[in-house]
Write a structure and sequence with these properties.
The protein is an alpha/beta fold. It folds into 4 domains: about 190 residues, Immunoglobulin-like; about 260 residues, Alpha-Beta Barrel (7-stranded beta/alpha barrel), CATH 3.20.110.20; about 60 residues; about 100 residues, Subtilisin-like superfamily (Immunoglobulin-like, Sandwich). The protein is about 30% helix and about 30% strand. The chain is built from 16 helices and 33 strands. The strands form 7 sheets. The protein has a 6-stranded mixed beta sheet with strand order 1-8-7-12-13-3. The N and C termini lie far apart (about 180 Å). About 35% of the residues are buried.
């Protein structure tokens, strides 16, 4: 067996684009043992821990793997014991979770390469004597072990990605054999007879069309399946298939922007805050959608959780969400837009107060339980929303098809306005569901990134929202793996969700059609609440200034204008509030009806009022009468709690006689507290000089009428006498006498 210098495995070309017929007999045995052609021995498992995903021609491919199984000792390099002097340097304490490298998978020590930040302080210890193992330059003889790396034609669509990763590979196009196996073992100390795990490091250059003896040929841009197999004594004992991408030529690459949306959108979803805190410590931006009421509740019960969350989300962003449960569609139907905006501003205030270093933005709006209506969409766009995020289960009803390429934004006409919508990919959402098993995280991230890139055309701009189907907290480990892969490509970038509308092309052939109505028709309840609010406002005007009950009543009425309170529950609250108002009004005890006599032109009437309640109250006493006037008019009276008080009322008589007096007791806003009390007044106020003058006037008037009647009688008699005189009876000229 040939071997290279220490640590440098010998590479043999095992596949080429063209295979000479003369070499077929030599290469055929390798083909028969290449990945996909032989069944691996079940005693071994080959796991991919880290890899290079995007390469340009000439770049080096790197694969870090673990081989789990009872590997023969002879396949490992021999070791020697040496004594070394070690200087220990202690870094300064970390300034935050983002300074720490991403965690490695359990049971492995090789992870994605990271660059540590420079430290500001160091401490040097004395030089201890340690024992380390160093690979020998020659492995033990007669062990035939090697690693074979084989490349297959590029995949063309999402189905091709899945087939390749599931082992349906087709015919290989190129391959390299690295030998001996021992020279690929990167960490000798990782091999332990108790767990039987060794770490393998595979590195080989790539080429483009002109293949050398020790490189892997990727002739054109695309996503290539690559199979890595471990062979012992000529038998394939373990294999793994992954994908690598040869990046497009400059100017032709798609622009792929990825926005992570993580939500804690239920007011009782406290555990999600801890998961969100953990996710936000990863090295990629996060857009958080958090129920403001959940923050308010948690900060009272567990302030440390909010402190940790605020620190982790520093520099990220949060989605502006309203307090309460009034959805935009129901608000638009019931003409409650102003109330919705008030809830939205209140939610922003909570987010800014609890997460002061996290900007709150209205750009994106996740549609959760049911489609948003056209009116609701218009309400949101007027508040600043530019992008609606549609979950997978609503895609068919809103778009009419699920065959929308991932990351394409769709036009959403809204009357005079227009917004964009993006659909959360169902397959991606499933792979982002949190899972404690991290063994497939790298493969899942390779699969998802390949799905997105293989569907993106040359030069297209795609904006993908990475989220779970219910807008929960996605899997941190999978996203961290994907972020590491994205770092290798200039055309793939993680951004905040609010940045997606400006860097994404729209699909001009598919529109999102929002339904005309959605949510709950709250118009009947709005009418009832408005009536009760006016009634409570009347009662509120009776209460002392500073009484907090009116504010509480209005808040409870506002809480009824939500979609989570059913009609029965709303009516129960209304009945309770109306009963409280009636109790306050019933505390005012009016006087019983009585009669009184006025013997002067002006007098004072005493009316007794009682406040039988425990709260001081204000009322307005308003008297009225057809024969009496009240110079002071209606007057406001403050009645202390449990107090009976006489209210003086100024009265002026206009005529003698018996008349009614109505005493109305009203709220300061002008509504009767009780029915008006009717009193009886006997007026004998016009006496003395006033009566003489009045009597004289009556006599004068009577004398004038008698004189006038006598004069008219004389005039009528004189007229009759003239008519009987003979001279007045002469015949008229031209008359005919018929006697």
């Amino acid at each position: 067996m040939a071997s290279g210098t220490a640590g440098v495995p010998v590479r043999r070309r095992v596949f080429g684009v063209l295979l000479a017929a003369a070499a077929a007999s030599i290469i055929l045995p390798v083909l028969t043992t290449s990945p996909g052609a032989a069944q691996p021995v079940e005693a071994f498992a080959l796991t991919l821990v880290d890899q290079t995903y995007s390469v340009a021609p000439g770049d080096e491919l790197r694969f870090e793997l673990t081989l789990d199984g009872a590997l023969p000792t002879q396949a490992l390099p021999t070791t020697t014991t040496t004594t070394t002097t070690t200087t220990t340097t202690q870094p300064a304490p970390s300034t935050g979770d983002r300074d720490r490298p991403p965690p490695r998978r359990p049971g492995t020590t090789v992870g994605r390469s990271t660059t540590s930040r420079p430290t500001t302080t160091t401490a040097t210890t004395s030089a201890p004597t340690t024992t380390s193992t160093t690979p020998a330059t020659e492995p033990l003889p007669n062990i035939d072990g090697d690693i074979t790396v084989v490349v297959y034609p590029p995949v063309l669509d999402r189905a091709g990605v899945d087939l390749a990763l599931d082992g349906e590979l087709g015919e290989p196009t190129d391959g390299v054999q690295l030998m001996p196996l021992a020279d690929s073992i990167s960490v000798r100390s990782a091999y332990d007879r108790d767990d039987d795990v060794v770490e393998l490091s595979v590195r080989l250059p790539t080429s483009s069309g002109v293949s050398g003896a020790d490189d892997l040929d990727l002739p054109s841009p695309g996503i290539y399946p690559v199979a890595i197999a471990v062979r012992l004594d000529g038998e394939t004992v373990a294999e793994h298939v992954t994908l690598v991408r040869r990046v497009p030529d400059p100017g032709t690459a798609p622009q792929l922007r990825l926005g992570v949306l993580a939500g804690a959108m239920d007011d009782d979803d406290g555990p999600a805050l801890a998961e969100l805190t953990d996710l936000a410590t990863a090295d990629f931006p996060v857009t958080a959608a958090i129920d403001p009421e959940l923050l308010t509740t948690t900060v009272e019960q567990d302030p440390r959780t909010i402190t940790a969350l605020a620190g982790a989300l520093t520099g990220d962003e949060s989605v502006a969400l309203p307090t309460g449960d009034l959805d935009a569609s129901s608000a638009a139907t019931a003409d409650l837009g102003e109330l919705f905006y008030r809830h939205l501003r209140a939610g922003e205030d909570v987010l800014l107060r609890q997460l002061p270093e996290t900007p709150v933005r209205r750009t994106a709006w996740p549609i959760t339980d049911e489609p948003i209506s056209t009116g609701g969409g218009e309400l949101l766009t007027r508040s600043g929303t530019r992008l609606f995020i549609i979950p997978p289960d609503l895609a068919t009803s809103l778009v009419g098809t699920t065959e929308v390429p991932v990351g394409q934004h769709l036009r959403t006409p809204l009357g005079a306005d227009e917004a964009s919508s993006v659909i959360v990919d169902d397959d991606i959402a499933n792979l982002l569901e949190p899972n404690t098993d991290t063994a497939d995280d790298l493969e899942d991230s390779v699969r998802m990134l390949s799905w997105m890139l293989v569907e993106a055309g040359s030069g297209e701009r795609r904006g993908v929202v990475l989220a779970t189907a219910d807008f929960g907290v996605p899997d941190r480990s999978v996203l961290s793996e994907m972020a590491g892969l994205a770092d290798e490509a200039a055309d793939v970038e993680f951004v905040t969700v609010s940045a997606l509308p400006g860097v994404t092309d729209e699909n001009l052939s598919v529109d999102v059609t929002l339904p005309p109505t959605s949510g709950t028709d709250m118009r009947p309840r709005v009418t009832t609440v408005a009536r009760v609010r006016l009634s409570l406002a009347d009662t509120s005007s009776m209460l002392p200034r500073g009484d907090r009950r009116p504010l509480a009543w209005n808040q409870r009425l506002d809480e009824l204008l939500t979609t989570v309170v059913d009609d029965d529950a709303a009516q129960a609250v209304i009945d309770e509030l109306e009963a409280a108002a009636r109790t306050i009004r019933a505390a005012i005890v009016p006087p019983d009806p009585f009669s009184f006599t006025l013997t002067g032109r002006e007098s004072e009437l005493q009316v007794r009022l009682t406040n039988a309640g425990s709260t001081p109250l204000r009322v307005v006493v308003a008297p009225s009468s057809p024969r009496l006037t009240f110079p002071s008019g209606p007057q406001t009276v403050e009645l202390g709690a449990g107090v009976t008080q006489f209210v003086p009322i100024d009265v002026a008589a206009r005529a003698n006689g018996t008349t009614s007096v109505s005493i109305s007791i009203r709220t300061p806003s002008g509504v009767d507290v009780v029915r008006p009390v009717v009193l009886t007044a006997h007026v004998r106020a016009l006496t003395g000089v006033g009566q003489v003058i009045t009597g004289g006037a009556v006599v004068v008037l009577a004398t004038w009428w008698v004189s006038h009647l006598r004069q008219r009688r004389r005039q009528r008699r004189a007229t009759v006498a003239v008519g009987r005189h003979p001279a007045s009876q002469a015949a008229a000229p031209g008359s005919i006498d018929r006697s």
